[in-house]
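pasting for ref
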Amino acid sequence: MTRPDLIERLAAAQAERARHDLLRRLREVEAVDGVHIWIDGRTLVNFASNDYLGLAQHPALQEALIRAAKQWGVGATAAHLLGGHRDEHAALEEKLARWTKRDAALLFSTGYMANLGAMQALLGEGDVCVQDKLDHACLIDGARLAGATLKRYVHADADSARRQLEANPDGAALLATDGVFSMDGDVAPLAGLAALCKAQRATLMVDDAHGLGVLGQEGAGSLADAGLEQDDAPVLMATLGKALGVSGAFIAGSKALIDGFVQFARTHVYTTAMPPALAAATSVAVDIVRFEDWRRDKLRRLVAHFRHGAGERDIALLDSRTPIQPVLIGASRAALVAAQRLESDGCFVPAIRPPTVAQGKARLRVTFSALHEEADVEKLLNALARAIAHARGATKKER
């Protein structure tokens, strides 16, 4: 029998990845205090977190979590439809809907599950899902699992999206895009995409994982920033574990959409509900995000400081106005060397390599938090200049 062994095949794929400097590895974080983390016994300034507003350790969130855990315990113990849906969940869903100016909202355990569930409920064979080339993996997987025809368009190019829709005129169509792209930090052309979807009778779905809390009035996200309403973008997904500092995700939209997802979104129906204590902490986080504008104001100042300083030091950045500030390196080996040098200088900025990004587009993905200070930015800028020079020299010697 010549049937291949699955574990051996997996090991061979891992060995191949290692040969090309693409092997991922887990790093154990021993402690966290604001923007400082401890790894391998060393204190580092963390520039890799998605805790953009600095809420993950906020005392008010911790107090809400403990209060609700004493009332409900640490787990929901069942799926939402089987007794796991508590008043903490219902209150949070109502608050999220009001914040994003949608009719209703529905909680999911993760953003990945939210996107898989939404697409599986909306799409089927014969339908088409048109997506940005740089969309998150869960949007791609959602379309494939739903059995729809997946078409990709040139990044942030509404004309390219139009051509894909026009090439598939008969099937029901969903256009799905990130609001803020997680590896490039740029914002999708949402107004143009919304107009396109109306003209083509397609439904627009926006994954605003990295926009919620950061962009728009009261931090309501990239759709609010673009001035778009529920009818313009009928399906809004956002996560609760980035700017809100907690965990989980939600989808917001019309009552018909949310009622339909309660029936047909398998990743909502067939999984244990988010712990009620997490929902209580998230509810507090929403209030802080909405009404403490100083956090977003400070983020903007830090980003402006960083981009100005990078320009002075000839550090090449991608075009981004968000807390995600990628430093393009190119070769995977060079990105690894630069990340290691940054760590030796006290800055934690992991290298991002293929397949997460395209071949030849390895980078250092810098992210900022409202808890960073200008001194942290200066430390990073000086360390980056040294790390990039070091990486260039090291890779030249290896050649």
